[in-house]
Specification:
13 strands; Rossmann fold; alpha/beta; single chain; five-stranded parallel beta sheet; about 15% strand; about 425 residues
Length: about 425
C-alpha cells in the first residue's frame, strides 16, 4: 500500500483528491494538512511514501515545505502542485528536491500515475541499500567489537567537524581509533588535521573493497596522535559512489580492527546519515547556543523520535561559538529536554589557531579549557569501550606529526586537494 500525504490550503481540493485516491486499491491517504508547518509535522508523524504538496501553502510555502521534507524525510517522494507557468515552477520544484511536478488543473488519473511513478522510483533507489541490512540482521550475529560514535549537527557552523576530529585524537590516547569523514560532498576532516589522502572512501566503494581489511588499511592514512583517517571524496559528485550498503560493510570491518570509530556526518539528513545514527553505539548531537542552532537540534530530535531511536544513545554537546548573544545553557537544555553531556567553552584563540594550522587543539594546547572538556568527553565514551589500546604509546605524549605509510595500493584517483571550509 502506498501511503500519501495531501497538503493544500483548500479543504475542497483535499476532499476531492482524497476521494479520487480512495478509488485505488494500492493507495491510501495517511494524513492531510492545510499549511506548510502542519504538513511537515504530519509527515514526521506518519512518514508517508509520497507527499503531494501545493506550492501556495500558507505560512511555510510549498517550496520551503518540499525542502524540509527532502531534508528530514529523504525516503518520502514529493509531488509539487502549482498554478504557475510550467517552466519556472518546474525549475523551482526540482531545485527544492521534488520528484514530480503537476501544473493545475490536472486530472485524477494524472495524479495517480505521478504517485505511482514517484513511489516506484523510491523503491528502486532504496532497495540495493536496504537489502544487505535485512540480510545481515537475519543471518549474522549481533555486531561485536569496536564502538561507533556518530557526530551529528543539524546546522552548519556549529563546530561539529572540529569536535569530531579532536575527539578522535583524544580517544587515541587509550584506544585504537578510526576517523571517518562521511560528510561525503564537502568533508573538512582533511583540512582540520592537515592531511592529504590520495585515496578516499569513494575509491573503496567504486572498487567494492569496503570489506577488504588490507585494502581499507591501505586507503586510510595516519593522522595526528596515531588516528587512522578515511577521507571524504575529493569532489562532490564522487559522493554518489558511496551507499548505505557500503558503509554498513565498512563499519563492520572497522569494528573488528579498531576500539573506537568516530564518524563525522553531513549537516543535512540523508539515508546515509540516518543509517550511521541507527548503527551508532552513541550519537553526539552538537549544537551551538544560537536560536537557529537550537531550533534545528529540536527538529533533529523530532526526526529521531519518529524513527524510534533510543534517546539513551544520544549525548548533547554544547559548543560555544560566540562570546555574546547566546541563549542560556539551562534554557537550551529545557527546550531540548536533555542535559548537556559536554560543554565546550568559547576560546577563539585556541580553536581558530588550531583550524588555521591543521593541528587539533587537544595536541597543540592540551591544557586549554576546550581541550580539557574534549578529553573529559573522550574519557566518558572510552569508559564503556573494552579497549585493546596502545600500550606501547600509553606512557608517551601524543605526537602531532604522523608517520609515513609505506604500503600503498594502486586503485582509484589521485587526490589533488582538500576543502577549505570548517563545519
Amino acid at each position: 500500500m502506498i501511503r500519501v500525504l495531501l497538503a493544500d490550503e483548500s479543504n475542497r481540493i483535499i476532499e476531492n483528491l482524497s476521494k479520487r485516491l480512495g478509488q485505488e486499491e494500492d493507495l491510501t491517504v495517511c494524513a492531510v494538512a492545510g499549511d506548510g508547518d502542519t504538513a511537515l509535522q504530519e509527515a514526521l508523524r506518519t512518514q508517508p511514501d509520497v507527499a503531494v504538496v501545493d506550492a501556495g501553502l500558507p505560512g511555510m510555502d510549498g517550496i520551503q515545505t518540499t525542502e524540509m521534507l527532502v531534508q528530514y524525510l529523504p525516503n518520502t517522494g514529493v509531488i509539487l502542485l502549482s498554478m504557475e507557468a510550467e517552466n519556472e515552477a518546474f525549475r523551482r520544484a526540482m531545485l527544492a528536491g521534488a520528484r514530480e511536478f503537476l501544473q493545475k488543473p490536472f486530472s485524477g488519473d494524472e495524479l495517480v500515475s505521478a504517485i505511482r511513478r514517484v513511489h516506484a522510483y523510491g523503491q528502486r533507489k532504496g532497495t540495493p541499500a536496504a537489502a544487505p541490512a535485512a540480510d545481515a540482521g537475519a543471518d549474522a550475529p549481533p555486531s561485536r567489537g569496536g564502538k561507533l560514535f556518530t557526530v551529528v549537527g543539524a546546522k552548519g557552523g556549529v563546530g561539529k567537524s572540529a569536535i569530531a576530529a579532536n575527539l578522535a585524537v583524544a580517544l587515541s590516547r587509550t584506544c585504537r581509533v578510526a576517523l571517518l569523514d562521511c560528510s561525503l560532498q564537502f568533508g573538512d576532516i582533511g583540512i582540520l588535521l592537515n592531511i592529504t589522502a590520495e585515496r578516499t572512501i569513494a575509491d573503496l566503494a567504486a572498487n567494492n573493497a569496503v570489506a577488504d581489511h588490507d585494502v581499507v588499511e591501505d586507503v586510510m592514512v595516519d593522522g595526528p596522535g596515531g588516528v587512522r583517517v578515511l577521507a571524504a571524496p575529493i569532489s562532490p559528485e564522487l559522493a554518489d559512489y558511496v551507499t548505505t550498503q557500503h558503509l554498513r560493510a565498512l563499519i563492520e570491518q572497522l569494528r573488528r580492527t579498531y576500539d573506537c570509530i568516530v564518524v563525522d556526518t553531513a549537516t543535512h539528513l540523508s539515508e546515509i546519515s540516518l543509517d550511521l545514527v541507527e548503527m551508532a553505539d552513541k550519537v553526539l548531537v552538537v549544537t551551538d547556543l544560537s536560536t537557529t542552532g537550537v531550533k534545528n537540534a529540536r527538529l533533529l530530535q523530532t526526526v529521531m523520535g519518529v524513527l524510534k531511536v533510543d534517546p539513551a544513545r544520544f549525548a548533547l554537546v554544547v559548543n560555544h561559538r560566540d562570546g555574546a548573544g547566546e541563549l542560556d545553557r539551562a534554557y537550551v537544555e529545557d527546550v531540548l529536554k536533555t542535559a548537556a553531556t559536554a560543554e565546550i567553552p568559547y576560546d577563539p584563540n585556541v580553536v581558530a589557531t588550531s583550524i588555521a594550522r591543521g593541528v587539533p587543539f587537544v595536541l597543540s594546547q592540551p591544557q586549554s579549557q576546550a581541550a580539557l572538556r574534549i578529553a573529559g568527553l573522550a574519557g566518558l565514551l572510552a569508559s564503556g569501550v573494552p579497549g585493546r589500546g596502545h600500550p606501547e604509546r600509553d606512557a608517551a605524549p601524543l605526537d602531532p606529526t604522523p608517520p609515513k605509510r609505506r604500503r600503498r595500493l594502486g586503485i582509484g584517483r589521485s587526490r589533488s586537494g582538500q576543502a577549505a571550509a570548517s563545519d
